[in-house]
Design a protein that fits this description.
five-stranded mixed beta sheet, 1 helix, mainly beta, five-stranded antiparallel beta sheet
Length: about 400
């Protein structure tokens, strides 16, 4: 989205793992605990096993060999047994990667021209396509079906393009230069063919969010935030959106007195709101400054309304991924950004698994899973290459 970089008791069943096959972990991740509460017994921990592929850059781009998918099998951490998601990622070596967590099948394809663009934004992966954009504003590359050669989507500006993963189309913003205002979003197929569907923006800028219920989020916490789609619009809860889900929205808003500001979770059906008990004011401020637009947005709040993927601004000017427990206010910080990435370019990537038990993130190049039941943080596989960004492919 255009705003990229400009912002900010669980029902899942427990699983048991044989200790002989469990991956060892070390180094505790910081968790915010309310005063008087005990520290959780299952502390989040960082993986002691790094990816087996070193972080190197591919420097040669002059290959005449047609691209092909290369296939192998990797060992998936047994704690992910039963998970059927497929993770799509861009590697440090400028490859597109997809790993099936149910079978361990790993597929990669080299894209030589990506080697000159080191900071890919999180990919967008639908049932029949993968789109990859970069921080230099170049037109997105789109893989359709099983074709290993991407097509450059020249009609799409990556900063004002929204990908509809369910329909396999994209929305691009139309702009009226004479009055300096956006007018509408137009839907097209990947080859640039207009579908005839449009969304009226009424002069309001897209916020960078694509609502998981469908439609684009426009406006801000000052004039109001709205979900708009081809057939209508609706006002979202007042306040600045921090995270958005199918059933709940997290917003930052203030009361009648100075300093009476906090994060509220709002039920989208009933409109009822309750305060998220975060006592650490600095943590709230870091949430406010976090990046919240683009592909990581959408269903960042789980359907039970208990957990939310959020971005937190750190001292280096980079946004890190964290999981906020909406009931207790505890914050588990999950990702460590690569220090080589320019702060203004870094876009955190994270996605919930389909069953919403695991959050998948990039942690210092490792494809990492966070189990919100146990609080464990561990590498998906020690045999995966180092990656820059990831997403979970939409399953229809």
């Amino acid at each position: 989205g255009w705003a990229l970089g400009r912002s900010g008791d669980d029902s899942g069943s427990a699983r048991t793992v044989d200790a002989a096959t469990s991956v060892s972990t070390a180094t505790t991740v910081a968790v915010t605990v309310l005063p008087g509460e005990p520290v959780p017994a299952a502390e989040t921990s960082r993986p002691a096993i790094p990816p087996t592929t070193s972080r190197t850059w591919r420097t040669t781009t002059t290959s005449t060999v047609p691209p092909v998918w290369e296939e192998s099998t990797v060992a998936i951490d047994p704690r992910l047994a039963g998970t059927t998601d497929r993770i799509v990622a861009v590697t440090d070596d400028a490859d597109l990667l997809e790993v099936d967590l149910a079978t361990g099948v790993l597929r990669t394809v080299a894209v030589p021209r990506w080697s000159d663009v080191p900071n890919p934004l999180p990919p967008i992966a639908g049932a029949g396509f993968v789109a990859v954009t970069f921080d230099n504003g170049a037109a997105p590359d789109v893989f359709v079906g099983d074709d290993p050669t991407p097509t450059r989507q020249s009609t799409a500006d990556p900063w004002v393009t929204y990908w509809d993963t369910a329909s396999g189309t994209l929305w691009t913003m139309q702009y009226e230069d004479s009055v300096g205002r956006p007018t509408q979003m137009r839907e097209t197929t990947f080859d640039g063919t207009a579908t005839g569907r449009t969304i009226d923006l009424a002069g309001m800028w897209p916020s960078g969010l694509f609502d998981p219920r469908g439609g684009i989020v426009v406006g801000d916490g000052t004039i109001g935030t709205y979900r708009v789609w081809a057939d209508g619009s609706e006002r979202l809860p007042d306040g600045r959106i921090v995270a958005l889900g199918l059933s709940h929205v997290l917003v930052y808003r203030c009361g009648d007195t100075l300093g009476d500001c906090a994060i509220d979770v709002v039920d989208r059906a009933a409109g009822e709101a309750r305060r998220v008990p975060i006592d650490d004011r600095s943590a709230v401020d870091r949430l406010l400054n976090g990046w919240w637009g683009g592909p990581m947005a959408g269903a960042t709040v789980t359907s039970d309304g208990r957990s939310a993927l959020v971005a937190m601004h750190n001292g280096r000017g980079v946004n890190e991924v964290a999981v906020l427990d909406v009931v207790t206010g505890r914050i588990a910080e999950l990702s460590v950004p690569d220090p080589r990435i320019r702060p203004e370019s870094y876009a955190p990537s994270a996605s919930w698994s389909t069953d919403e038990r695991f959050a998948f993130v990039v942690d210092d190049g490792a494809v990492t899973a966070y189990d919100r039941e146990s609080g464990e943080l561990f590498p998906v596989s020690s045999q995966l290459p180092s990656v820059r960004s990831l997403t979970v492919r939409l399953q229809l």
